[in-house]
Amino acid sequence: MWMICTKEWRQFFSSLSGYIAMVVFLLLCGLLLFVFPDTSLLDFGYASLNGFFDIAPWILLFLVPTVTMRSLADEYKGGTFELLKTMPLKPSQIVWGKFFGALLIITLTILPTIVYAFSLQALSAVGGLDIGSTIGSYIGLLMLGAVYTSVGICTSSFTNNTVVAFISGAFVCFLLFTGFEAISKLPVFAGGTGYYIEMLGIRFHYSSISKGVIDIRDVVYFLGVIFIFLLITQRNVAKR
């Protein structure tokens, strides 16, 4: 499994597109949080990274599928999947190796944003950041990235076209993040059913963790979604 993980890591950084994706993510976050006046954290009047944690899931919607779109689609298209089949590897080892390789890349991309927290803490005259909430938000963001990664690898396992894998991965991530919340607000679900429908979406659990309270139900939800998509991926790989 770790051989596949290392291969995924090296493949991503062997091309310029990998570095460009990471730089664009960090540059876009920096512009939105410190330059553009409508979203600048410096104009809030108090030290808070809430703006970053509100924006980051939407940027990750495009970053993560960029990382994962080649995971299996390129293997199918380039014929290297045939080589993987000749190795003493189970489908589960291939899938989890791909998952952890892509997740390490996403984690490495998110890690530099901790500078934002240190910057706001240093610039704050009184009080500073809510450390508990900030740590919880970062944990939620990493879990969100893990779910997006599992979705991206799953959609990549259905096709040998990287563009189709990217579009379908971004679309499914979008539906999981905000789709259930939108459906829950329909008048037909106004009686109370809407709350339970909203609980099926990622945004509900991400917002809960971002408050600084790590609820085991939210953790189980994220792990469950990851497992489901990786299980689907494993079955797709086994069929081939």
Reconstruct the topology from this structure.
Elements lengths: L1 H12 L2 H19 L15 H19 L4 H6 L1 H7 L4 H20 L3 H10 L7 H26 L5 H23 L8 H6 L3 H9 L5 H24 L1
Helix pairs in contact: 1-6, 2-3, 3-8, 3-9, 6-8, 6-12, 8-9, 8-11, 8-12, 11-12
Q: What does this molecule look like?
A:
This is ABC transporter permease subunit. GO terms for molecular function: ABC-type transporter activity. Keywords: Cell membrane, Membrane, Transmembrane, Transmembrane helix. It is found in: Cell membrane. This protein is mainly α and 240 residues long. The protein has one domain (2-239). The protein is 75% helix and 0% strand. It is built from 12 helices and no strands. Helix 3 (50-68) runs parallel beside helix 8. It is globular and about 60 Å long.
Q: Helix/strand/pairing class, anyone?
A: mainly alpha
Query: How many whole angstroms does the radius of gyration measure?
Result: 19 Å
The helix tally amounts to: 12
**Mean of residue pLDDT?**
83
The biggest beta sheet is recorded as: none
Q: Determine the N-to-C terminus distance.
A: 18 Å
Shape type? globular
Approximately what portion of the residues adopt beta-strand conformation?
under 5%
What portion of residues is helical? over 70%
- The count of DSSP E runs of length 2 or more, i.e. the number of strands, is 0
Number of domains: 1
State the order of secondary-structure elements, H for helix, E for strand. HHHHHHHHHHHH
User: Stretches where pLDDT falls below 50 for ≥5 residues?
Assistant: none
Organism: Panacibacter ginsenosidivorans
Protein name: ABC transporter permease subunit
InterPro entries: ABC-2_transporter_component (IPR051449)
Keywords: Cell membrane, Membrane, Transmembrane, Transmembrane helix
